Amino acid sequence: MKFAVMSADVDNEQSVSSALQEVASIVGNEGLNCLINNAAIGNTTDLNTVTPEAMMKSFQVNTVAPLFVTKAFLPLLQTAAARSSGMGIHRAAVINVSSILGSITHNWAEGANFKSYAYRTSKAALNMVTRCLAADLGSDGILCMSLPRLGPDRHGGPL
Ligand SMILES: NC(=O)c1ccc[n+]([C@@H]2O[C@H](COP(=O)([O-])OP(=O)(O)OC[C@H]3O[C@@H](n4cnc5c(N)ncnc54)[C@H](OP(=O)(O)O)[C@@H]3O)[C@@H](O)[C@H]2O)c1
């Protein structure tokens, strides 16, 4: 396993391209086994406060960016996938960090108390991006999945 730290703005094509080059130079011929799209912006935008700008910014960072970061890193993931068999992180995987707040089923009763048109909508759309990627990349041996979060929530609850 290799460990490196770098910064990137996932909403900036040039920045993603620079990160890609940096990662490519580190992983070399082995490719990239796992891409985790974790970056996101959150906000509380109820029916009174939601704006077109809040909707579009959340969609751009939380939904569009994970798709295009994945597209950018696809050659590295395909290189890793070609070196192994089966399906999983040992081979190649894209993990999109979503949220239970992106679940339409969860948006009832108490689950509807958290008001954010922008965040909830962007994460619901991210789930569909993930499913589309899974449908397209399964034949390459690249696992694509959403997780509701990476670790304990702000209240210390389990994953
Ligand atoms: N916290 C929870 O309870 C919870 C629950 C469910 C799901 N999630 C999801 O888990 C993930 C992480 O959540 P968190 O609580 O750690 O969120 P957070 O504390 O708000 O951190 C979000 C991270 O995303 C980065 N980011 C935002 N816009 C970016 C951009 N354009 N380019 C690159 N990085 C950007 C932020 O960087 P800067 O600080 O530099 O802006 C920050 O490091 C998110 O996808 C979130 O939706 C969190």
UniProtKB/TrEMBL annotation:
Pfam family, one: adh_short
Molecular function via GO: oxidoreductase activity
Record-level GO cellular component terms: cytoplasm
Superkingdom as given in the UniProt entry: Eukaryota
PANTHER family assigned to the protein according to its UniProt record, in alphabetical order: C-FACTOR, SHORT-CHAIN DEHYDROGENASE/REDUCTASE
Name recorded for this polypeptide: Zgc:110339
Organism in which the protein naturally occurs: Labrus bergylta (ballan wrasse)
